[in-house]
Amino acid sequence: MAYQSPHPPVTVPNTPLTPFVFAQAHRWMTKPALIDGVSGRTVSYGDLITSADEIARGFIATGLRKGDVCAVFSPNEPEFASIFYGVIQAGGVITSINPLYSVAELTHQLRDSGARYLLCASELLAKAQIAAARAGIEELFTLGHAPAATSLATLVERGAGRSLDAPVIDPANDLAVLPYSSGTTGLPKGVMLTHRNLVTSVTLWHAVEQMAPEEVVLAALPFYHIYGMVCVMTVGLHAGTTLVTLPRFDARTFCEVTQKYRITTAYLVPPMVRTLAKHAVVDEYDMSSLQHIVSSAAPLPESMAQLCSQRIGRPVRQAYGMTEASPSTHLTPRGNPRAAPVGLPLPNTEFRIVDVDQQHDVAVDEIGEVWIRGPQLMRGYLNDPEATRSMIDSEGWLHTGDIGYADKDGYLFVVDRAKELTKFKSLQYADRELLLAMVEDITTRRDAARRVAFQTLLLDSVRESVVATDFDGRISFWNKGAEALFGFPADEALGVPLEALIIPNDVTARKELREELATATRFGKWQGQALRRRRDGSELWTDLVVSRIAHADGRAAGFIAIHRDITELRANQAMIRDSRERMQNLASSLLAAREQERAAIARDLHDDVGQALTRLRIDLCWLTERVPKRLRTRRSREMTDFVDSLLRRVQHISSELRPPVLDDFGLEAAIEWQARQFADWNTCACALDLELSQLHVHRNRDTVVFRIVQEALTNVARHSQAHCVHIRGRLSASELHVQIDDDGVGFVEAKLQSPQSLGLISMRERAESIGGQLEIVSRAGKGTTVTVRVPVDQPELARSRR
Question: Helix (H, G, I), strand (E, B), or coil: what is residue 298?
Fold first, then answer.
């Protein structure tokens, strides 16, 4: 059977939308029509009507013709209303676009709708410019001033002094708005709504809601969405109320605006109701002015509605509809505020609950698909007659795809919305098996709910903190471990954005949270350490595992996170790191002291012993020349050779301790000298490829790199059995890079990590002492590569190059 509306039929005037909305506005021309809740900027009804007329004249002067599509890409601002009613008055069609859309999504709607003009908020101009160019938009307008687009003020100037020659509108056939909806399946489609559709929807809603001019309405729902566009903005202005706009919703701003402007009426969606019911910030403000709260756009759990009612002291009602119904079909009356149902049918509206399999009406309280019929239904989908026929049958019934039931009083209860259940690429709405499966699924999910309750009990028994959120970041589960760790009881945490509750209030922490969730979304899991905040404001470090929760079709539904407090562990690790750093500093100091001592000994050997031996040799030569030839023996000659050998040995030891070439000519010359020395006392060939001529002299750095090269060559000589070693040196703008390759026997990975490998450890410590890095790669039988990278002081490098 069809359920009829209990309300008396309503006569809908045959008039275009804009004059209908402002038909009674002469009674309150000086009254505020719109107030920007953030800035306090106020637009009176007189200003709004004047502004809409000016925009209409401006567009007509620009060349807009009846039926041309104008796209609006903006959050809620007072100018949105002026543009909306001005364009429609000029005969244009508004297609409103989600301000969160990407360039690709924006481009698709512009192209699909055939928009000629695009109006955007200034902060969205960058995306709008790209999309406008791709979609062939004739002119781009901004609500503010920007050099790359025409301002709204310039548009108004075009029409200044002109009469308003608006075209004649056929309300029943001429489109007013072209919002986009995906219906029950597929990509978003343009929903063709005529002037009569919207006038009908406003008339039917107002007949039940009976809004009074004295009401102050919170306009937090986005005007681009059909719910905010019609049920908030258009109904509210038609009734003479004052709308307080918010460009975006957050709990504190919502409460501040409600208290400041004494909001009486709030049209919300379930997440907003959840905020009112659970967010701690609500207790800081006076919310007593709120008299009427209506939730729509998604099913609201009865328990949540009751919790909000108890906290605010006012009932929470529900409404139902869809874009294809422009948008409303059901509303719970103010005089009978039941929380669970989505309402009774509006005047002139009827509905059925249909068995999906057999296509006949079901009995009271039985579940089936919701069908709607009424004068507010759309004209059809833009350029898609097949989808239109699939949505609205030959008898005028709109097959919503939503699952629900009706009680004996004719109230509709929606169990699940089709848009949440039927996003499958390969399934079309005509596949009735899908809806049948949805109905059967409800019973399964009720059983699952009981299992979830048991699982919740289990999770509450574990010591770790377990927190779950929906995909919007609002907390949906908070166990006893979370209460103990963070200090918030579950009734305060549930429904609150995780970011506002336990994430430190700084840019870095919030950026890291988004990265954690992005990784979990992409790969299913993120694991690491993260900074969190307790109720008392103190911060703690947690060992964290974040896992993605998915719907059956694979779409992300939310996240579950397990926290373990590691604050004390990190403090201990920090102490260890600090101790290690002090040890490294000590080792660095010891190396420096050792190098200084070696340099001193080298100087002493060179200056004292070397000079003494040189003088001794001179004296021996002088003495030999004066001894008669008959007395010159082999032994006298050997004495001179011995002194020469001893002198060379002293010079070698001195060079090994500290080669003078390192101090006199720099690192490149020192490496070349060491390579020659290596080749002299080793059978292994040594090739050089150095480009370090522009490197400035830096005693400490050059010594460290030279000693690493020296140690590497010593290891090659002693252990590698190599035939060839290759030394490369390069210099970049910020780094010195030296690499020693050999073709020897190599060694196993375990030896690289062995504490017994003192030479390797010493090389690493040397590199780290000047902020460098040492990498050793070796494979048994395939040689070894030693790479050292150290930073270079760019200003000094620049000076050396000059």
Answer: coil
Q: What is the distance between the alpha carbons of residues 9 and 322, in angstroms, rounded to a whole number? A: 21
Q: How far is CA 213 from the centre of its chain?
A: 41
**Do residues 398 and 377 lie in contact, with contact meaning Cβ atoms separated by under 8 Å?**
yes
Reported as type and span, the H/E element at residue 89 is helix 78-89
Strand partners, 413: 405
Q: Phi/psi at 246 (nearest 5 deg)?
A: -130, 130
What's 716-742 look like in SS3? HHHHHCCCEEEEEEEECCCEEEEEEEE
| CA pair distance 464, 459, nearest whole angstrom | 9
**pLDDT tens per residue across span 196-225:** 999 999 999 999 999 999 999 999 999 999
What is residue 468's DSSP assignment? E
* Tokens encoding 665: 């000519």
Is it the case that residue 148 has pLDDT exceeding 60?
Answer: yes
What's the mean pLDDT in 773-800? 78
Query: Phi and psi at residue 125, in whole multiples of 5°?
Result: -65, -40
The pLDDT confidence band at residue 298, using thresholds 50, 70 and 90, is: confident
pLDDT at position 290 over 90: yes
Q: What percent of the chain shows pLDDT beyond 90?
A: 49
Q: How far apart are CA 56 and CA 85, in angstroms?
A: 8
- For residue 614, name the pLDDT band (cuts at 50, 70, 90): confident
Helices (H), 210-287: 226, 235-238, 251-261, 270-278
Measured CA to CA, the distance from residue 613 to residue 617 in angstroms comes to 6
Distance of alpha carbon 170 from alpha carbon 181, whole angstroms: 24
Residue 755 has pLDDT above 70, yes or no: no
Whether pLDDT at 787 is above 60? yes
CA separation for the pair 656, 602 (Å, rounded): 8
Long-range Cβ contact pairs of 486-489 (< 8 A, separation 24 or more):
486/532, 486/533, 486/534, 486/535, 487/534, 487/535, 487/536, 488/535
Whether the Cβ atoms of residue 242 and residue 33 lie closer than 8 Å to each other:
yes
Angle between helices 270-278 and 251-261 (to 10 degrees): 80
Nearest of 643, 678, 637 to residue 659 by alpha carbon:
678
Beta bridge partners of residue 69, listed in sequence order? 93
Letter string b/e over residues 672-686, b meaning 16 or more CB atoms within 10 A of that residue's CB:
bbbbebbeeebebeb
Q: What is the DSSP string of 553-590?
A: TS-EEEEEEEEEE-HHHHHHHHHHHHHHHHHHHHHHHH
Q: Which residue is associated with the tokens 């990265």? A: 515
Residue matched to tokens 């050998």: 645
CB 208 within 8 A of CB 346: yes
What does the buried/exposed string (b/e) look like for 601-614 if buried means 16 or more CB atoms within 10 Å of the residue's CB?
Answer: ebeebbeebbeebe
